[in-house]
User: Fold this.
Amino acid sequence: MSMADERMDREESGFGSTAEEGSAGRKKSKSRSKADGGSKKKQRSQGVNVLLWILRKSIVPLIMVIMLVAGLYIGYVVLGKQAEGEVFSWATWRHLYDLVFAES
Assistant:
């Protein structure tokens, strides 16, 4: 057996160098494919891959924005005991900004 044939046998069977280990490795790989149903993994289209990538990258900033809105609501309505309708009014937050950064 030449070195090339021996190397090909080792690659097919994994790390084993003997023929017995090689046949055992092939049996294991066949049983794995049967356990998976013998079906190959479906390839997603490029558009779906791009959409999933965008969703993965935007989940943390999205959660941060949701928590910011929830914190504003809790701070203004629950702790500040103000009306719920004023929380998302732009005039409310402009007035708050003017109070905090006004020159005294």
In short: The mean pLDDT is 78. Residues 36 and 92 are 59 Å apart (CA to CA). The radius of gyration is 31 Å.
